[in-house]
Amino acid sequence: MEPTSHYRTFTYLWYTLWTPGGLLWVAAVLGFVPYEYSGLAIPWLAVALLAGLQLPRLIPARCPNCGVRRAYIFREQVAEDSLAVKYRCRSCGHVQDTGQVEAVGGE
Ligand SMILES: [Zn+2]
Questions:
Q1: pLDDT at residue 107 above 60?
Q2: Which residue segment(s) compose the domain that 21 sits in?
Q3: Alpha-carbon dihedral angle through residues 100, 13, 66, 71, given to the nearest 10 degrees
């Protein structure tokens, strides 16, 4: 997987992981969820957020320069309030800019 599609896939996966947990938590707060299930929301959210943040670091993308699957995500501050999402290959050192930007404090 190329760095840009790798980043998009994992961002999408992250949302699909934590959204059900968030909805369950809101439903639990409003009293729509039976008591024995309402305790699931917080652990679900915690696991989804942590796992979702760690997955792109554990599973590298394919380097577009040398073709080896050893391109790891990193973020570089490009302005006071924004981070550029980039990938650095641990095989050849190539840096790929995904063109994606995140707000500082998002993590
Ligand atoms: Zn490479």
A1: no
A2: 3-103
A3: 80
